[in-house]
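Our platform keeps sequence and structure together, in a single record for each protein. Such a record has a labelled line for the sequence and another for the backbone structure tokens. The tokens are whole numbers drawn from a learned vocabulary of local backbone shapes. The remainder of this section carries one protein's record, kept here as part of the documentation:
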Amino acid sequence: MKGQAQNQNLATTLTKLFNAQLQLINVLSFFFLFGCGLATGVILSSYLSNISFSLHVSQFSFSTTAPSPALIKLPPPRVGLKEYLKVPAVKHDMDEKELLWRASMTPNIREFPFDRVPKIAFMFLTKGPVLMAPLWEKFFKGHDGLYSIYVHSSPSYNESDPESPVFHGRRIPSKDVLWGNANMIEAERRLLANALLDIANQRFVLLSESCIPIFNFSTVYTYLMNSTENHVESYVLEGPVGNGRYSPRMRPGIQIKQWRKGSQWFEIDRALAIEVVSDRKYFPLFQKHCTGQCYADEHYLPTFVTMKHSKRNSNRTLTWVDWSRGGPHPAKFLRTEVTAEFLERMRSGSDCVYNGNHTNTCFLFARKFWPNALDRLLRFAPKIMHFNK
């Protein structure tokens, strides 16, 4: 009995000790977990505080260095003379009055505030395609930026013949033209006005579909750019096909002593071109009174230039023609008539004055040539004129 009691007391004591240790472990575990939780909370809180601070700093930094796009005031882009100098497309929609008005604008300050390369405006007055286009292609090759091309052809021409590249897209808005009629002058003024829209164009040459160049581009460019005169043929011719075409109804604006005749094919500088498109005094007299057998294209420009700008005119044309066969039209040359000797005679068979000095280089262009002469022209001309290859 006594032994049993001792055993029971020992068991009870062990149980108490075990329970005490278990309670101690629980207490320690609680404190451990509490400590871990506290540490985790402190760390997490600190981390979140840093993130918030960083965001505030970033927002402050962004607000000080990158304001809202609505608040940014950028300087306006520089326009300068870009819009003024922009050349309208050849196929513009200006009517006649708008075109002539715009073309008549001219600055009174001679010095240009920008770099430019002077160009020659080649103006072709045609019924249809430019018949000698392949030869002109060789003439223009390698000289981009030194010339402009404008073509006035009949509105009925539907471009059924394929255009050569250099003439592609160069047709201006055109109207019907009758030979000898005052609307021929209207077409010339239309060509000049379109060419004047390009401020770089400084010399202006009127040509037909049957014209050819008889010198290479470099020679033509140098000759025209260095010239101190315009080239409008103008002379007095007595008789029915000269002074006989004058109408007294043109008085007092134009007197018989001022009446002149000359070739339709001219070469003029920019200043005179502006005067021609701006003329509202003399040209209306030709429209009203130079009709029928008057042939305005042979009289208007020679008379106008003699009256207003004779001091700067050479009184000669730069386009060679042959009137030796008689009749109302100059000779038109066939394929068999085109030879190297013939071309040389056109180039150097005359005598004239250029810038005050005598020279035998009096013509730069020639007409008229039949389309069947093109193959021989392509054979001889490049060798004689030294076109670029």
